[in-house]
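The passage that follows is intended for readers who have already worked through the single-chain material. We present the inputs for a multi-component assembly, then the predicted structure in tokenized form, and finally a short commentary. You are encouraged to pause after the input and sketch how you expect the pieces to fit together before reading on.
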Amino acid sequence: MYEEEEQRLSKLKEDLEKAKLPLEKADEAILKGFRKAKRDKRVLRKNRKSLIAIAIAVTSIRISPTFANVLSSIPGMEWIIGFVEQDKGLSAIIENDYYQKVDISETIGDFTLTVDGVIMDESGMNVFYTLKSSKSLTGGKIKQINVINKEEFPEHSQSYSVFFPDDIDNEFQNMVEYHFANSFSFKELKFNFELKAIIDNKEINFSIPFKLKESIKKSVIYPINQVVEMDNQKFTIEEIIIYPLRIGVKIAFDPTNTKKILGFEDMRLENEKGEIWSSINNGTTIRHISETEKIFYLQSNYFEKPKDLYLRMNTLMAIDKEEAMVVVDTETNTLINSPKDGMLKLGKTSKEQVEFYMKSNSEDQLNLFSTVIDADGKEFSVFKTQMTSNEDEKRWELHFEKVHYRNPLNLELSAYPNYIEGDVKVELK
Amino acid sequence: MEELEIEQKAIEGDDEAFLAVIRLHKESLLRAALAFLKDEHAAIEALQEVTYRAYKKIHTVKEPAYLKTWLTRIMINYCQDQLKRRKRIISDNRLQETFVHQDQSFLELKEALGMLSNEDQQLIYLKYFQNTKIKEIAALEKIPEGTVKSRLHTVLKKLRLYFKEKGESEHV
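Having made your guess, compare it with the prediction:
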């Protein structure tokens, strides 16, 4: 019926097929797009020595077949998928039966709290719990959670969700995560789970004792001490510690480097088959030991038995050291120092807040600054950073709690959209 | 590994499988990009962006066998957005073609395709340039096969009308 048109179209198709494709640049473009997408998935949190609350968003739930099998054998555990499915290490923990079921409850009035289970290793512990009520829990929140042992907890960071989600009915299921700064083992595995909730303006205090089996897996340490280089920046991979919950990669930066490394965008472990374990998606990703020594955390391959294992990285977020400090006078509204690329611009300023903006169409959520130092050298933290972005611009509104300071302010960059590339491959085994 | 197995793993969130899938389809993706954007540099940028978008959305794909077409649609959507932007910036500088030998009828056809709506262009591309099955287009668009057929019919009719009018006006 439309033979003529179809013929014309197929001739055009032939013509299109003759076009030369820029294949030599294709793989690089694919990797760039891939890395950008990976970066977006990452939540970078740092300096979590003190209590920080986070809400863990569960966007999609996909279940692998092995996983489904394990879960079907432990009824009531389906909700935990949301926490573990985005982390290969946590998934492997469930599959390898390293999750310890606790299932001990306490009921106070209309409310019942259950400690469902625990994952513990020398790097920390994750406690899963369920709060139930005969009434709606909407509007309530968690005031405090503490896990207690006879021994004092080592230096750690702790995270848990404070607010119940809006669509909550009468059940709230969540996890509290303890992350120890250094490997640590308790002498006795008897704990007390203490949770303070505020519901309908009433405080409810739960206290649930529980005991774990003496089967805490030992970490595996790979001493590396190898100096590697990317774009003339040197750093030493000191050691890699593999725990069931996470992998710690300890890195020391050469103080003579011209650039400050802000992040490892695609640090990963890779086995002989090319399977990779990348950075933690949801949880602590980095620990600062000192200005030049840091630990980066990856998803764990503890339960794997790889023949060969490599630590690899190709993209680092980095900025010239002299550009790493943004200097601002909030009273005269002047940007005294900022990265040379000129992308970062100063918006409105007042004693209470500073606004920055940048032309950018990337969807990356970068938290540019964390601490501020005033002209007298007094350090204070950014109380709140509000980020907004539209198609081609991003804005950061930094709010300060403290207004008694002397200008100019020094804001140290903790992230900036500037990257160096290279190929680092270190053999573990 | 079988192609479909890789595609299934990619949908399940396996990074290596995802990269393998994109690499597998890079040629047809670049071809689509060139057909719309007509510029190698822009095509490479498009491939990067499509990789990025696909990674974020791949878990929503239900049928692994349709992954290639799914990717092509992301590519065409991206290209059409880019063209819209270009139009805003550079008023009309689109006669810079990269094809060396082309007679009048090709130019005419491309002009005709340019007149079509984004949806119609996408349909033509999938059906005639990538030989996608009507069943697959129907599944991805979530419309009955009959609707795809009648839409194709309408588009071809539009093309015929366009040529006819053009032919007539040239004779005047």
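Commentary: Residues 41-64 of chain A have pLDDT under 50 and may be disordered. Chain A has three domains: 52-211, 220-318+419-427, 322-413. How closely did your sketch match?
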